[in-house]
Design goal:
The chain has 93 residues and is an all-alpha fold. It contains 3 helices and no strands. It has a single domain, classed as Up-down Bundle (F1FO ATP Synthase), CATH 1.20.20.10.
């Protein structure tokens, strides 16, 4: 395998890994919808606990959104600042 083939394999695998990391955003959306629907259902059953349920819902939404942002960050790193490319270039040279 020459240097160009090796570099193309690294870049193509990085693109596939980036696509998988971006799937996290899709699942984050479904998770947030589940959190909100359960909170609305809980408030309908116990209106006196609205404040506690709302607070817990916002904490859960923040944690779910953070997971989506981490997936986006990993995807950006894999596409634009992939450390494996530098390691490969230094190894080949």
């Amino acid at each position: 395998m020459n240097a160009i083939e090796g570099l193309s394999v690294i870049i193509s695998v990085a693109h596939i890994a980036s696509a998988i990391a971006l799937l996290n955003g899709l699942f984050t959306t479904f998770g947030q919808a589940k959190i909100v629907s359960q909170a609305i259902e809980s408030i309908a059953r116990q209106p006196e606990a609205t404040g506690d349920i709302r607070t817990t819902m916002f904490v859960g939404l923040a944690m779910a959104e953070t997971s989506g942002i981490y997936g986006l960050l990993i995807s950006i790193v894999m596409l634009f600042a992939n450390p494996l490319v530098d390691i490969f270039v230094n190894f080949v040279s």
